[in-house]
Amino acid sequence: MSGDSTLPKTVLLDAGWFVGRMQRHFHAKRGLIPRMTKLYNEGRTTLEKLQAVHRRFTYTDLKYLEFRFRQFGCSPQYGAKVIICYDGTGQRRGQQFTAYKGNRAFMAEGEEYDAAEYSTRDMRHEFIAQGFEPELRSKWNYLYDDSKEADDLIADYVDANHKKEQLFVFSGDSDILQLLRFTNVRVFDVQKEITKTDLWKKDGVSPAKYADWKALCGDASDNIPGLPGIGAKKAADLINEYETIENIPERELTLWYPRDKSKLAEYMMAWRHANKKDIDFCKRNYGVGWGALERMEDSPLTLQKLEKMKVIPEAYFEGHSQLAAACMYRNIIHLPFT
């Protein structure tokens, strides 16, 4: 726990948490919602009855949230303000990276995904259909901006108010951990609090370096690939040593491609014959990519793989910097998004 305990308390709740709950209820084995949905699709019950079941589960989820608010000392019963933050239906990040969240999209057969054009569902309509207002509770409030995601709304609020309020952020989105760089901010995944120490133990970085770190190693949940050959551990080592992506030697962020596939393959086979080595020996000692390069397949090398393939002159390769891609990924991950 940190910050000024005398300041008024505000809970910022990512409405995306309810999406996960709805999916869990819908896919529960022998659950009431899948059974009622089946009956409705078969014409054996009404939409009103189906929505009433959804409402009952949402009400249960709200009671659970209120229990957690009391547990973590931010209950509205004792004066805390609650603000629900909803995802907008547009995706500004898709203007920069068209594959953004492409792994979550539902597309018709043959239709290509483009994050810049794709619209997500408005969760407020789900709750209204169940008979709730978007704020869900009479004394709660909500924020919505069609062009912003929930974590952007949360980040904007934190940026503007962290010096005058105690802020309790509830979200399942790991990008929210960046906000621990602000004073008077605590972050929860609803079940537990996640601190700066937890972040350091798990990922090896501070909140201020989180966006740079994730840009390098990627984020599968948002379909951000990161840079080839850089995992979480190496990304943390690079960012902790160089502070920012721009400070990392560009050679570390470069992929190496054959200048001429046929000439490279010819050289590799000639080297093997001259040194009486079979291809299995070369793959064991110089990297498994040896075989692909000899077969003239598209197989770019990271710096580590290039250096391991030390018997091949570097002149046979040309480097393609991934610095611009890494900076673009960081901009997408960084909160608040600009």
Give short descriptive properties of this protein:
two-stranded antiparallel sheet; Rossmann fold; 2 domains; alpha/beta; 338 residues; 41% helix; single chain; 13 helices
Summarize this entry quickly.
The chain is α/β, with parallel strands linked by helices and 338 residues long. It has two domains: 9-86 and 122-194, Rossmann fold (3-Layer(aba) Sandwich), CATH 3.40.50.1010; 206-338, no CATH class. The protein has helices at 16-26, 32-41, 47-71, 123-129, 150-161, 196-203, 210-217, 232-242, 261-275, 279-286, 289-294, 303-308, 323-333, and strands at 9-14, 81-85, 141-143, 166-170, 185-188, 193-194, 254-258, 317-321.
Plain-language structure description:
The model has no long low-confidence stretch (mean pLDDT 94). α7 packs across α13. The chain contains 13 helices and 8 strands. The protein has a 6-stranded mixed sheet with strand order 3-2-1-4-5-6. The protein has a two-stranded antiparallel ribbon with strand order 7-8. It has 338 residues and is α/β, with parallel strands linked by helices.
By oligomeric state, this entry counts as single chain
| Count of helix runs | 13
Count of discrete domains: 2
Strand count, sense and barrel status of the largest sheet are: 6 strands, mixed
At the fourth level of CATH, the homologous superfamily of the largest domain is: 5'-nuclease
Percent range for helical residues? 40-55%
Which CATH architecture of the largest domain?
Answer: 3-Layer(aba) Sandwich
Strand content: 5-15%
The neighbouring-strand order within the major sheet is: 3-2-1-4-5-6
* CATH top level label of the largest domain: Alpha Beta
Give the overall shape: globular
From the helix content, strand content and strand pairing, which structural class follows? alpha/beta
Overall pLDDT level: 94
CATH topology of the largest domain: Rossmann fold
* Element pattern in H and E: EHHHEHEHEEEHHHEHHHHEH
Number of strands: 8
Q: Which spans of ≥5 residues are poorly predicted at pLDDT below 50? A: none
CA gyration radius, whole angstroms: 25 Å
Q: How far apart lie the N and C ends?
A: 30 Å
